[in-house]
Task: inverse folding
C-alpha cells in the first residue's frame, strides 16, 4: 500500500507513523506530508528515511490511502483533491464528521457502514471514540435512553503547545500559553469555544457524533468536557440510562467480550483504569461499574483511553485495516 500521512510532523501524525509501524500495516511506500516550511525534512519509518513532501506533490503520487491529521481547514480544501485521484482519505479533523454524505467510523462499532465508494471517511472526536466503544455492546442488549458524560481530558488533546505550557508551569518557567489560564494544579471546564446554547463545541461533538456513530438519534447525550493537567489519556465518567432492566454481571460480561475494550474493575483491591495505565495502549479501559441507586435502569461507569492512539491515530489506522481486509481499497 502506498500510504500518505498528512500532518506527519505533528503530534498525532507522529503517533500515526508509530502505529502504522507497530501494527505492521503493509506500507510499501510512505509519503510523509506537511506544510511548505517542513518540505525536505526527513522522517524515519521502519529504519528508512523519507523526505517530507507538500500536499500537491503527494497528490501527484496517487497514494492508496491518506491519513489526515492537519486540521479542519486543510482537510476541507485538500481531502477532496486526494479523493479525486482515487485516494481513500481517513480524516482526523472535525471537517467531515457531521457531513451527511460522509461516514463517521469507529471500527468496533460501525465499520460495516463502509463501502468502496467512501473516499473521505471521518475519524471521530477522541472523547467520543472511547465512549462509543464502551456503549455499543450495552446499547445492543439494553437500548440506551440517555448518557450523562463528564470528561477529564489530557493536555495532549490540545497539542504540543499545551504540553509545553504544563511542563513550563511545573518548572516555574514563564512561557507561551496554550490556554487562557494556568493548567498545572488546575482544571479548565472549557474545551473549544462556547456555542450559542452554552455548550462548548467539544461537548456538542460528543452529543452529535454519538448519535451518528451509533446510528440512533433517540439516544440523548449531555456532556461537560474538562481539561486537566495529565498526559496519558482522556478519562470519562459515564451515567447511562437504559430502556430495559439490566443485570450487573451481564454488563461486565458484555463489556469484557467487546473488541478493543478491557475491563479493570476490582474496587476491593483499588483496581480501576487511570490515564497512566492507558498511555501508549490501543484499547479502551473501563471500571467503577456500578448501579446508579438514585434512579432505575441506570449504570455508572468510568472509561479511559489514550487520546492520541485510540482517540486519534490508532482508530484511523484501524479503519484502513478494515478497508484492506474487506477489500474496499487496494
Result:
Amino acid at each position: 500500500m502506498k500510504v500518505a500521512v498528512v500532518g506527519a510532523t505533528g503530534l498525532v501524525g507522529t503517533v500515526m507513523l508509530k502505529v502504522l509501524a507497530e501494527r505492521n500495516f503493509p506500507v510499501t511506500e510512505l509519503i510523509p506530508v506537511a506544510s511548505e516550511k517542513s518540505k525536505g525534512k526527513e522522517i524515519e519509518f521502519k529504519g528508512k528515511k523519507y523526505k517530507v513532501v507538500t500536499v500537491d506533490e503527494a497528490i501527484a503520487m496517487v497514494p492508496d490511502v491518506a491519513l489526515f491529521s492537519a486540521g479542519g481547514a486543510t482537510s476541507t480544501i485538500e481531502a477532496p483533491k486526494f479523493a479525486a485521484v482515487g485516494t481513500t482519505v481517513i480524516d482526523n479533523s472535525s471537517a467531515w464528521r457531521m457531513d451527511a454524505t460522509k461516514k463517521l467510523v469507529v471500527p468496533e462499532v460501525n465499520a460495516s457502514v463502509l463501502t468502496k465508494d467512501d473516499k473521505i471517511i471521518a475519524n471521530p472526536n477522541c472523547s467520543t471514540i472511547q465512549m462509543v466503544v464502551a456503549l455499543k455492546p450495552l446499547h445492543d442488549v439494553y437500548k440506551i435512553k440517555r448518557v450523562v458524560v463528564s470528561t477529564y481530558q489530557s493536555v495532549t488533546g490540545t497539542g504540543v503547545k499545551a504540553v509545553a505550557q504544563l511542563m513550563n508551569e511545573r518548572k516555574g518557567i514563564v512561557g507561551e500559553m496554550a490556554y487562557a489560564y494556568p493548567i498545572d494544579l488546575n482544571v479548565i471546564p472549557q474545551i473549544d469555544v462556547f456555542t450559542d446554547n452554552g455548550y462548548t463545541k467539544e461537548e456538542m461533538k460528543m452529543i452529535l457524533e454519538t448519535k451518528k456513530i451509533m446510528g440512533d438519534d433517540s439516544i440523548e447525550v449531555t456532556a461537560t468536557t474538562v481539561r486537566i493537567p495529565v498526559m496519558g489519556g482522556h478519562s470519562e465518567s459515564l451515567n447511562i440510562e437504559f430502556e430495559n432492566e439490566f443485570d450487573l454481571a451481564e454488563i461486565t460480561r458484555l463489556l469484557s467480550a467487546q473488541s478493543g475494550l478491557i475491563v479493570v474493575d476490582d474496587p476491593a483491591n483499588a483496581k480501576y483504569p487511570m490515564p497512566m495505565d492507558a498511555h501508549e495502549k490501543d484499547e479502551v479501559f473501563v471500571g467503577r461499574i456500578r448501579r446508579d441507586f438514585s434512579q432505575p435502569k441506570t449504570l455508572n461507569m468510568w472509561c479511559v483511553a489514550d487520546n492520541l492512539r485510540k482517540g486519534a491515530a490508532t482508530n484511523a489506522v484501524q479503519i484502513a485495516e478494515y478497508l484492506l481486509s474487506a477489500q474496499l481499497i487496494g
